[in-house]
């Protein structure tokens, strides 16, 4: 969680320096969700999420260096500089999706593949409260229930869809009940241990052949919807009150009280993480940008070389599968 937090702080700095461009969505405050889920599922289980992606990218195995380098649009990034802050991928991780709610449909499709192939893998489809009113979610819930797909639908309820509070956007704010014919549970998304145990329960439910389940994680983002946003829709007093429930400070306090670690241990962790993030940032700003010749490569999987039209008819580029 501390690695994700320090990484977010570095991204804020790089964005201010205009070294990270385009939409960039922080995960600060919600770290317990990604870390708790990963602690409960297997490495070979599948996960797909929204554009608030960098926390899950790290927990799914992408290095800090590859994440920051992708954000600066350089060759050494996890998507070779093509994805930017929103689109990162790894084995069994299907990245961040910019279309609100679209990842839920794709996640159900992954669950269908798991079922079709008779594997014991599950699919975890993560979405926010802002996507919870999308029509496609209800269509997907219906199909997933009919076919008993092994899918955990995770709603990260951080209380705001962009700048609109859940009370203003949703007639029913009990998102874990939205499945109607799918069971649901609600957990404290600011407690990493609670998230882990709730996800274990959901995973076991799916693997037992009972079909899908909805897991609502009540969390809070300490930053704006995107970097450098002016959060005029909520008061500073509200944010400060929520920061008293910081998931990292909360876990640290629990471990100190139970003598599981010392203050010195945590200081050593902070120093190690900070060193890793700083080294990754140095690489991210010095790594070369992808060349124009590489721009269209890897458009198709296992495809022979093909010609791709550029911005105008006489600009021709080549696409080669060079992974």
UniProtKB/TrEMBL annotation:
Highest taxon of the lineage: Eukaryota
Gene3D superfamilies hit by this protein: 3.40.50.970
UniProt keywords, alphabetically: Oxidoreductase, Thiamine pyrophosphate, Transit peptide
Pfam families tied to this protein: E1_dh
Cofactor: thiamine diphosphate
InterPro entries assigned: DH_E1, PDH_E1_Alpha_Subunit, THDP-binding
Dehydrogenase E1 component domain mapped to chain residues: 1-291
UniProt entry tagged with the keyword Transit peptide: yes
Record-given protein name: Pyruvate dehydrogenase E1 component subunit alpha, testis-specific form, mitochondrial
Organism encoding this protein: Mugilogobius chulae
